[in-house]
Amino acid sequence: MRRATDTHHDATAIPEVIRTYQNAHDGHDIPTALSAFTPQATVTDEDHTYRATNEIHHWLTKTSTEYRYTRTLLGAEAADHHTWLIRNRLEGNFPGNVVDLRYRFTLADDLIASLEIAP
Could you tell me the mean pLDDT of each successive run of 10 residues in the chain, 119 residues long? Predict the structure, then answer.
């Protein structure tokens, strides 16, 4: 198991597609964020699963416009060749103002096949 728990020093250990997605989402660049997903990908966030391109586009639009926040990468760990566990701290104008979230990315063909987001 490869670990990159202090990703401030080794953020390049995280696959490019995950970095592309996170930077695009942070920058409210929905087309670029969406391009990081497979056509049949799933995203689970706040106990709801979004399936395939149209639903993920809706989710990206909602989450990009609902609140303003900054993201700090707290850590990253490769669970296996296709699965990455990323921890981020979000600070912004949402209820509670600060939250640490776990992102579980499953990759396929260098794209995101599934993303699960949980506190």
Answer: 39 88 94 98 97 98 89 95 96 94 97 97
